[in-house]
Every structure is written in C-alpha cells, then in structure tokens.
Amino acid sequence: MKEITTQLNGFKTRITAHHRLFDLHLKETFSYRDLIFLFVKRDFVSKYKQTVLGPAWALIQPLLTTVVYTLVFGGLAGLTTADIEGDYIIPGFLFYLSGSICWSYFSGTLLATSGTFLNNSAVMGKVYYPRLVTPISTALAHMISFGIQFAMLVVAWIIYAIIGGTSLAVTPWLLLLPLVVLQMMILSTGFGIIISSITTKYRDLQMLVSFGLQLWQYATPIAYGLTLVSTSETFSKYMFLYQLNPMTPIVTTFRYAMFGFGYFDLTYYLISWAVTIVVFIVGLVLFSRIERTFMDTI
Amino acid sequence: MDNLMIKVDRVSKQYRLGQIGGTTLREELQRKAAKLLKKEDPTKKIGEKDYEFGETFMALEDVSFEVKKGERLAIIGHNGAGKSTLLKLLSRVTAPSTGGIGLNGRIASMLEVGTGFHPELTGRENVYMNGAILGMTKKEIDKKIDDIIEFSEVRQFIDTPVKRYSSGMFVKLAFSVAAHLDAEIMLMDEVLAVGDMAFQTKCLNKMNDLAKNEGKTILYVSHNMNTVRKLCNRAMVLEHGRVVFNGSVEEGIACYLKDDEDASLHFDFDNAKRPYGGIGDKFRALSLDFLDGRTQFKYNEPIVSRFKFKTECPFKAVRLRAEAYYFDGTEIGNYETDSFEVDSAGEHILNISFMPDILPIGQYYLIINIYEVDLMNNHKVLDQPSQRIPFEIYEDDPTGIRWNHEYMGHVRMGKIKVSDTSF
User: Fold this and answer.
1) A20 occurs within a structural domain
2) What is the DSSP string of B78-130?
C-alpha cells in the first residue's frame, strides 16, 4: 500500500501506520503502575484461591524438588556439589535448594511471559493498555513466590550455620545478590516476551518452550556443581561455551554470594549481563512492534 | 485546533484473507488436497467465500473525519461496514495500515464491557482492576468508587467474588466503571444493549449527562436508531469501509436506511432449524422475500412479501401466521391469513402483505408458522422454521409522541375517540 504522510501535529496521542524501532512506550507503561500492582495482586491471589494450603504451595514445590535432587543427584548419582575445587563443606540441601528456587523462578517467569499475547488476547482485543504491563507484572508476581522461597533458604542457611560443621560465611559478596536476582528477572522476561511475540504467528515455539526449558536446566549447574564440568576430561574444553549460557554465571554467582564461597568470574559474569541486556532490548523492540497489530494475526 | 479532539487522517485498514490460522493441520491438508484435485473445499462453510491465500480485504478505506470537543458522533452502517474496525483503531487495539489518527485526551473504550473482570476477585477488586485497565489510577478510582457502586445497583454484593454474580449484575458493574471514567473521549459499541430495560435507560441518561453537562466527546456505534437519535448530535455513515455521509443525525439515519443493499431481503428456510417440528417433507416452507427491496418501513406502509412453499399433497385449510417479536425477543402478537386451500402438490407462491401500523418505531422480527385447521377447528402445525426475519419501523404516526418501548410497550393500540366534549 502506498505511503501517506499524515498531519497530526499538536495531538497528544498519535496513532500511525508506521512504527519507530525504539518507540517502546516506557513512559506510558510507567503511568500504568497501578495496573501493574493490581495485576501482580491478581496473579498472586487468584493462584492460591480455593487451595487449602495457599501460598504454602510456593514452599512445598521447591522443598520436594530439593529432597528429590538430594536423593537422586546427590545420593544415588553422587554428583558433586562443588563449584570450585577446594577444601570446604557445602550442605547438599542448601545447594539444591538455592539452585532449584533460581531455576523455578527463571523457568516459571519465562513460561508465563511467553504466553502474554496468546493468553490475554480476549482483554487485549477490547481495550488498550501498554501491553508491557502484563509481562512486567507476571515477572513481579513470580518474584513474590521467589521471595517466600528465598526466606526459606535463609532459614535453612541459618539452621545449618547454627548446627555448624559447614563453611558458610557472610561476605561482602552478599551485596551482589539483589543484582543477580534482578538479572534473572530481566533475562527471563526478555526471553519470554521474545517468544510471546513470535508465537502470535507461529504456535510451534510454544510447544518447544516448556520442553526446551527442561533441557536448558541440564546445561545449567542446578543439579550438579560447576566442577563436574570443569574437571571433566571430555567437557572441560567446552567450559567457555558452557559459561556462555547466561544462566550459568547467574546461578554460580548466586551461590557464591549466598554461601560466601564458590565460583565467580567477572568476565563471564559481565558477558552474562551483556547477553541479558541484549535479549531484553531485542525482546522490547520485538514486543512493541508486534503489540500494535498482533490482534490481526492471533 | 484547540477544541479538536479526534482527527482521523486518510486511514485505511487492510486485512489479509485466507491466511493460516484458526485451523488444524488436518483441515489445512484436506484443503490442499481438494485444491489439487480441483474439488470444492470440504472444510469450507456454506456461504463462505473462497479466498485465495494472500488476498486482501479493505476493512476501512481512506477514512477521514474530525470530531470536536463535546460532539456526540454516531457511527452507523450495516454489518461489515467497518464500524468496529474503526473503533478498534481509535482504541489502539490494532494499528492502521496507512494513515494516522490524532487524539487529544484520554480515550475510554467501552467495547464489550466487563472484559478483564477476574472471576475470583470481588466486585470491589474488579472495579479497581477494570478501572486500571481502562487507564485510571488508584487515586482516581478511590474518589469514584462510591459513585460507581451506587450506580451499579450491586452494593450488597460488592465484596463477593464476581463469579457468583448473575450476568446482569456483572454487566451493570462493568458499565458503571466505564461510565465513570475520567476520559475525555468515550467509545461505545452498542454497550447500551446491556442489562434490563430500566438499567439501559439509566445508562443512556448517564451518557447524555456526560456528553451534555460534562462536555465529553462521544463516539457511538449502534444499529438502534432510537438511541442514536437520543444520544448523538452528528452522524457518520460507513459503507464498505468508506465514509458515505457525515452530517446531521436525521440525514445520516435516512442515508443509512436508504442504503440497504446489504440488508437481507431474502430468507431461505431450507436450512433453517425447526425446533418445534412440522410434518416433514409433505409441507415445507422454502423462503420469504421482502418485495419492496428494503426492510425498513413507515408505520402506514404495507409490508409486502412473497412466501414460497412446497407440498407433496393437497391441503384443505391452511393458514399462515407471522409471529411478531420486538428485537429483544419480546413477543408482540401475530399477523394471520385466512384459511386457504392448497389444491395440488408442488411449489407454491403466496403473496402476502400486512400493515405494521400498530408497531411503533423500533426493530422487530417475524417468525413464520404454517398450520392446518380441521373441521373441529383443531390446529396442526405444518411447518415452523425458526429463521428470524428482521425488519424495522422507522417512522411513527406523526401525531403520536416518540415511543419509549420500555415504558410504553411494543404496540400502539390506536387513538381514543372523544365523542362528546363539554367544557
């Protein structure tokens, strides 16, 4: 169709056929912060409505996962829980718990945000609000569950510290923790909105997501320590590739900050941040491009 | 420029037809196979047009108009004329293919109220939620929550999850939220067709109040010319995605009524459902056609139509009854023929006409019912297709008052004669 130059100077809102690449409506999204808050509340409240245990479910899931991991990967398979070689003791329970809450936040958020357009098309087809509100509130609602789980981790940490016999320590690295959590949030939302944008046209990707996340977990040191890879004769030469998985430095850094020892490599961590930011920006651009007309193709 | 609220500048919206979507792989393959064998598509629905992949359809074409502050613009047109697409573009649900739209002020769309209500949340929580979706901040809703609850008439249940609400309560609450928005521009797509009649009038009055006293700009899409007359002070007629008229309400309505090439004049009973049965193939209603080439009539014009039917044997005394309903399904009464004889098997034509002079302005529909009367005056239904035959009465008896169906019913029973006056 032929182009038309429109004369819409002086109007507060302009709706045009063409979209500028970095027109992300961030300011507008911010003005809908009350809606974000309400969505978070809705997501969280409605999730546990009519359940007997309520938010306790947020604890039960990682707890059972941790128990199974401790038995299967730690007990039966005897996989290492060390991120670096050295002489220290790390309780298996804390190791698996920390890994599984990180992973469940990451995969949960990614999975939920990847359905942003598809699952909300009924509302989005009727009214306009900045579409970014939905994935942001999804990521925040999952953050509440993560918070509850994190509190459980802290309690377990304290219990182990009191019992003694471990190398747990509080170090200045603890300050890195919020940054790691934030990164996890940005990364999962970034991937989520990319997938959400693509699935408006091709549903295949949605099939792949939950399955892909399962596989992805094996490429991340959740159920085993980093030394399993770094000391392996066959795999240690792929260490660089392994570290390019942005979740690897996130998880190891999380444990490093939490336990006061472990593995930290600034280069890989910065690369991981770079990947996170690129994914997120690509996601934002794609998302804001798709949101204009996705109702026509969905 | 100062009081220009909306400017739509050469907007077109193109949709691609025949694209993938809404089908399963199996249907997709069946279709491909049929195409290869040059057979008719087995997945195609009856009456559906055959669109090639990539073919396009212009839902809106080169539409331009402006709306000033405080104007109440009616957008009228037949189904598929592009009204809803236009509202979708204005409410930013989707973007135009070319052209642009400028808005001065916040826009509140009331397209299907109540979307975004969450069943698990209470009425009050949903008010906040819905308000926020429509762009209000928490503070703004705090200020208005009492008005909203008051208007909705569901105060008693406001702290109950809305999944326990009746559909009427649901809609009332949703409309109340939308009606109390602090938006300068309000888009409405026949939302007034909600709730019971009393609530509808209340909504209409509220909209009138908003427009006239608070200076809000209203864009109203409707098929109901009565509400258009009440609410709007300007009308725009869309036809096949183009603006064909933009001006006064009365002229707009006249233009819309004249243009009825899209309105169905022919009603085929062959595929109609027959929930109440009949006697099968022995007597079968085939079709009904409006013969004047329109479906809008004045109160004093006869409605002339042609009824076709098929019989396999003769019938002694047949009668045709046209059951008249108000568009919302209220039964009004029956028009009936005298008994007539069908002396042979085969296809027959019956030209019928009746005067709708007792019907006030409004939209109605007929349902045809054919039955046989025997000597004992027993009735036996021959055929009763449930196909609705809609028509509209657009002009009342000029000496009468404007009809309000809610308070006055659906029948104009006629004048009262005054035989003697002594003052």
Assistant:
1) no
2) -TTSSHHHHHHHHTTSS--SEEEEEE-S-EEEESSTTTT--TTSBHHHHHHHH
Answer whether residue A111 is part of any domain.
Answer: yes
pLDDT at B24: 47
pLDDT value at residue A125: 81
Q: How far are the Cα atoms of A202, B126, B392 from residue B405, in angstroms, in the given order?
A: 50, 33, 14
**A-interface mutation test, from B5, B6, B9, most A Cβ less than 10 A away:** B9
Q: For the residues B65-84, what does the mean pLDDT come to?
A: 86
Q: Output the pLDDT for position B204.
A: 77
Is the four-CA dihedral A218, A220, A221, A227 of positive or negative sign?
positive
pTM over 0.90, yes/no: no
Q: Coil, strand, or helix at residue B334?
A: strand
Which residues in chain A (170-189) have CB-CB distances under 8 A to chain B? none
A19 near B CB under 8 A: yes
Question: Does residue A298 belong to any structural domain of this protein?
Answer: no
The pLDDT-based confidence of B335 (bands split at 50, 70, 90) is very high
**CATH top-level class of B4-15+56-258:** alpha beta
Residue A59 belongs to domain spanning: 26-290
Give the number of domains in chain A: 1
Indicate the SS3 state at residue A143.
Answer: helix
Q: Is A136 on the interface with B (CB under 8 A)?
A: no
Residue A21 lies in a domain: no
Locate the chain B residue with the closest alpha carbon to A199.
B21
Of B10, B94, B104, the CB nearest to A296: B94
- The reply to whether B4-15+56-258 and B266-408 are identical in fold is no
> If we measure between CA atoms, which residue out of B88, B68, B89, B63 comes closest to residue B6?
B68
The CATH fold assigned to B266-408 is Coagulation Factor XIII; Chain A, domain 1 (2.70.50)
Residue with tokens 């698996």: A96
* ipTM for the assembly: 0.78
What's the count of helices (H) and strands (E) in chain A, helices before strands? 14, 1
B88-130, pLDDT tens digit by residue?
Answer: 888 888 888 888 888 888 888 776 666 677 888 888 988 888 8
